[in-house]
Each structure stands twice: as structure tokens, then as C-alpha cells.
Amino acid sequence: MTGRESMTPPAWQRFSRLRLAQTRWHCLPEQLPEPELPRFERQLLRQLALEQAVMEAARRQSLTATSAQLQQVAQQLAQELVSAGFSADEQQAIVLHHSLMELQLASVGAQADEPQPAEVRRWYRQHADRFRRPEQRLTRHLLLTVDGNRPSVDQQVAGMLRQLRADPDGFASLAQRHSHCPTALEGGLMGWVSRGLLFPALEHCLFALAAGELSEPVETELGLHLLRCEAIRPAAPLPEAEALVKAGDYLRLQRQHQQQRQWLQTLLPS
């Protein structure tokens, strides 16, 4: 091993350095303004010491990441790791490092007290406005991709529109035969759709339709779309039983995070 190789920090430390610069300073470490370097280095040293302490705690518990957990973390970090130029072995080491840290923090969080039913109900009643089901549209969708033959596709869509205006209930049959969307197998049925799930142009069109109404063709980067709003489910409060489950989950998560923060504060002097 050369002197240069022996001085190279482990991959997880280099990744933490990169992440800190990008998340706090929105640049690469080598692009940091010189006046900011001392503050960056102080924060980095504390971050590395904290990660090291978490890893030591994980080793004391003999925590082991499953292949599914490793795969999940690998997917979460894939874009960052590839764009940063880490080798396959380095990526594997970083994924293992972060997987074990997640397991250790989950173990700490699991020690938090469970919220009691009376507490959950009281908190839910104080925050009932948070527990609403958004407006939803029961939607059918038909997509025709455009592969260099736009006039032919335009003509095909126009013909479908004529058919559907004459027979609105024929949408499912047309979608099954002609749509290039996976929903074709279900007659174009997308199910109940909330805002924020579709391309903006499709969402704007869908939520302007009345129940039973057919859209004009909508163009996106995928191709030409037709939408049919089968029914409208207005925004409404969630059923209390469902809301109480969500409230309990929220309080449980908050307690776990608090437990983790308190534990992390014990690892290093302030």
C-alpha cells in the first residue's frame, strides 16, 4: 500500500464529507468558499465522530443488515453514489455503513414509550383538521404514444373521440384495445386519483371534468391522453377509526425521533 492510499479516508467518510457540503452549503467540498472552511471542518469532524459512535453501538449489538435492507438503502443512495464516482466496492461499504446506522437508530427508537389510546384520541381531537381525505376522481385513461407519425396518431385520437361521444361507456373497451398505458389491462381504470399524482397537464384537465365527462386530448412527453372522470369523491374527514390509527402512528414516530435525538446527544459532548 502506498503512502497516498494509506492516507485516503474510508469511503463512508468521503461520502459524509460530500453530503455535508451539498446539503449545508449546496456545493462540492472543493467549491467551498475559503472563509467557510473552518466551520465546515468543525461540523464534519463532529458528524464523523457521531457516525463512528453509532456504528460502534451497532457492532456492540451485533446488528446485521438483511439483503432486503441493504437493497433498500442502495436504492436510496444510488444516484448520489454513482454521480460521485464511487467504485462498486466503495458503494457497497457505504451502503453497509448507512444500513447499520439505520438499524441502530431504529433499535433506539423502538425503546420509546407507546402512545396510549386516551392520549391518541385527545391529540386527534385537537388536530382533527389534519385528518381529511383529499378530493379524488375515479379515472379512466387512454394513452397513445407518438413515434414519429403524429398525423396518424392525431387522426386516431379524433376517431376515438367521435366514438366515445357517441358511446361514453365504450371507454374501457377502447382502452383495452388501443391504449399504450399499463392500465389498458384494466380498461384504462386508474382508480381513485388525488392531486399530485399525475403530470400537471393531466391533473389540471382531470380536476376540471364533471362526473361522467370525457376530456379533450391532452399532450405530455409520453404522448396523447384521453381521460374520463367516472365519479367524484369530495374532500371529507377520514373515518374516526382510520384517523385514530394515523394519529397513533404519527405520535409513535415523533416519540421515536425524540428518543433517537436524546440518545445521539449522549454520544458526544456538546
Can you offer a commentary on this structure?
By secondary structure, the chain is of the alpha+beta class. It folds into two domains: 11-111, no CATH class; 132-236, Chitinase A, domain 3, CATH 3.10.50.40. The protein is 57% helix and 12% strand. It contains ten helices and six strands. The strands form two sheets. A four-stranded antiparallel sheet has the order 3-2-5-4, sandwiched between helices. Strand 4 and strand 5 (223-233) form a beta hairpin. It is extended.
The spatial strand order of the largest sheet comes to 3-2-5-4
Please name the CATH topology of the largest domain.
Answer: Chitinase A, domain 3
Top CATH class of the largest domain: Alpha Beta
Helix content: 55-70%
- Total count of helical runs of at least 4 residues: 10
Which descriptors would you attach to this protein?
Chitinase A, domain 3, extended, single chain, 57% helix, alpha+beta, 10 helices, 2 domains
